[in-house]
């Protein structure tokens, strides 16, 4: 029996700017996103009966139609008239509702994996378009790497990888709803917007210092106002010596970019003092 394995890495937003609210309720964004090597793992196997079955060791995520990986399988079956079943095992490692696009990356991995398992022969552009039907972050998760994302997040332009560094992720024990954060966001209240051109120049030059200087996320204003613990983690990470510190996506996870390995133990131990979920990972290049 064929088994397909797919890795579903977490993403971070190096820049997240929101330009305006659109007529359709979504927001027009400009984001620079990249992948880190904290990943869920999916195993996909053909089932004898025509059914989608999802299982996971994680007790705290839905395993039915609410799961984005399940939705990805259902979408492919409907769109291409697939009469086969699939068993998907999801080894969940990415924290949930964390701003790390865990669910979106699982959906993207399911699209990639089922394209192979069911011999659908879809190209990356087609998989990205299907991904956009599942969520704004899914097309980027299909493509991977580093990209500029515009529109509601689905229009992508691949970029060079960021200069290699360590990424420390710290997630406070709260779950933040992306819809809530966008709902509370007011474009008119943003003072200074982050500079996307500056981040693009940093990546072109391969300059770690310039990348740290160009980090910015306008959703921080909303999330930090409601969750003081996110602001506190940012302050602690900065004090402990991370070179650049930012909230990812709609939060609550905060990431710190660190160039010197010798700094990591102090930052990790300092954070672990009051935050249980801390990860030290690398950027995926
Ligand atoms: C915060 C980010 O994760 C940053 O990468 C994304 O912008 C959100 O991506 P996502 O979680 O895949 O978002 P979706 O599942 O498409 O939408 C969740 C909810 O967020 C809001 N939403 C999302 C994306 C966007 N550009 N504008 C929005 O206003 C909408 O209210 C939507 O109902
Ligand atoms: N495969 C999945 N893994 C985790 N959560 C999922 C999945 N499918 C659906 N969900 C639901 O989606 C919600 C958001 O989870 P997810 O981990 O994708 O958020 P996130 O990391 O904040 O995403 P983003 O950064 O794209 O906003 C959770 O409440 C969860 O119940």
From TrEMBL:
Keywords: ATP-binding, Isoprene biosynthesis, Kinase, Nucleotide-binding, Transferase. The active site is at 11, 137. It catalyses: 4-CDP-2-C-methyl-D-erythritol + ATP = 4-CDP-2-C-methyl-D-erythritol 2-phosphate + ADP + H(+). GO terms for molecular function: 4-(cytidine 5'-diphospho)-2-C-methyl-D-erythritol kinase activity. Gene3D superfamilies: 3.30.230.10, GHMP kinase, C-terminal domain (3.30.70.890). Its EC number is 2.7.1.148. ATP binds at residues 95-105. Pathway: Isoprenoid biosynthesis; isopentenyl diphosphate biosynthesis via DXP pathway; isopentenyl diphosphate from 1-deoxy-D-xylulose 5-phosphate: step 3/6. The keyword S-adenosyl-L-methionine does not apply. Residues 67-145 form the GHMP kinase N-terminal domain. The keyword Kinase applies. Catalyzes the phosphorylation of the position 2 hydroxy group of 4-diphosphocytidyl-2C-methyl-D-erythritol. Belongs to the GHMP kinase family. IspE subfamily. This is 4-diphosphocytidyl-2-C-methyl-D-erythritol kinase. It comes from Cohnella hashimotonis. The lineage of its organism: Bacteria, Bacillati, Bacillota, Bacilli, Bacillales. The gene is ispE.
